[in-house]
Design a protein that fits this description.
The protein is an all-alpha fold. About 80% of the residues lie in helices and about 0% in strands. It contains ten helices and no strands. α4 runs antiparallel to α5, α4 crosses α6 and α6 packs antiparallel against α9. The longest helix has about 35 residues. About 20% of the residues are buried.
Length: about 220
C-alpha cells in the first residue's frame, strides 16, 4: 500500500504589520515625500510625478517576490502606472497623469459589476483567495456557497463595491480638475484606502446582519 501525496500547505498570508509598512512606505509616504523633494529641487511637475510613481511599482514587485505571486490587483495597479507614465511623457500634462491613476479603480469597478453575470461574483472569489481555500474558514465559505441567501449576499456586496469605486473614480476626476497637483496627488493616494476601509467595515456589518437573518 503506497502512501498518498502529502496534504497541500495553506498559502502563507503576509503579516498585517508588513502590509501596513509597505503601504506607508511605498504607496503613501514615500511617493508624497519624493514628489515634494523633487519639486523643491526644481524638477517639473510631470517628471516629479513619474519618478515618485516608481515607488508604488517597486512595492508591488517586492511584495510579489516575497510572496512568490503577483495578484490581479497588483497587475492592474502596475498597468495603471505604466499608462499614466506613458501619458505623462507624451502629453507633458500632470493632470492627465493623475487622471490615468484612476485606471485601476475603474477596472476594479467594472470587473466587480461584470462578474455579477458570472457563476461567482468577484468579491466572493477575493474572499476565498484571502482566507485561503485550504483553511478552515476558506472551506466554510466555499461550502456556504450552496445556500441561496449566501450567494445573494455576495452579489449585493460585489455590486456595492463596484458602484462605490465608480463613485471614487468620479471623485478623483473632479479633484484633479479643480485643485492643485499636490492636493490631487494626496487625494489620489488616500481615497482608495478610505473607500476600502469604509467598504470593508460595511461588508462585515452587512455579512453579520445576513448571517443572523439566515440563522433566524
Amino acid at each position: 500500500m503506497t502512501a498518498g501525496p502529502p496534504p497541500a500547505r495553506p498559502r502563507k498570508q503576509p503579516s498585517r504589520v508588513r502590509q501596513i509598512a509597505m503601504i506607508l512606505v511605498f504607496d503613501l509616504g514615500g511617493p508624497l515625500l519624493a514628489y515634494t523633494l523633487l519639486r523643491s529641487d526644481g524638477l517639473s511637475t510631470v517628471t516629479a510625478l513619474i519618478i515618485s510613481g516608481i515607488l508604488p511599482a517597486l512595492g508591488i514587485v517586492i511584495g510579489a517576490v516575497v510572496d512568490r505571486r503577483l495578484d490581479i490587483i497588483g497587475v492592474v495597479v502596475l498597468a495603471g502606472l505604466v499608462v499614466g507614465t506613458i501619458a505623462g511623457l507624451v502629453s507633458n500634462n500632470a493632470r492627465l497623469y493623475l487622471v490615468e491613476g484612476a485606471v485601476p479603480s475603474l477596472v476594479f469597478a467594472l470587473a466587480c459589476l461584470g462578474s455579477l453575470r458570472s457563476s461567482k461574483p468577484l468579491i466572493y472569489r477575493f474572499a476565498v483567495e484571502l482566507l485561503g481555500p485550504d483553511t478552515r474558514k476558506g472551506r466554510e465559505v466555499v461550502g456556504a456557497w450552496r445556500y441561496p441567501g449566501f450567494r445573494r449576499a455576495f452579489q449585493v456586496i460585489t455590486a456595492a463595491w463596484g458602484i462605490a469605486y465608480l463613485i471614487e473614480v468620479a471623485a478623483r476626476l473632479v479633484v484633479v480638475e479643480t485643485t492643485s497637483t499636490g492636493i490631487a496627488l494626496l487625494f489620489s493616494k488616500l481615497i482608495p484606502y478610505a473607500f476600502a476601509f469604509a467598504l470593508s467595515g460595511w461588508t462585515l456589518a452587512y455579512g453579520e446582519h445576513e448571517k443572523k437573518k439566515a440563522e433566524r
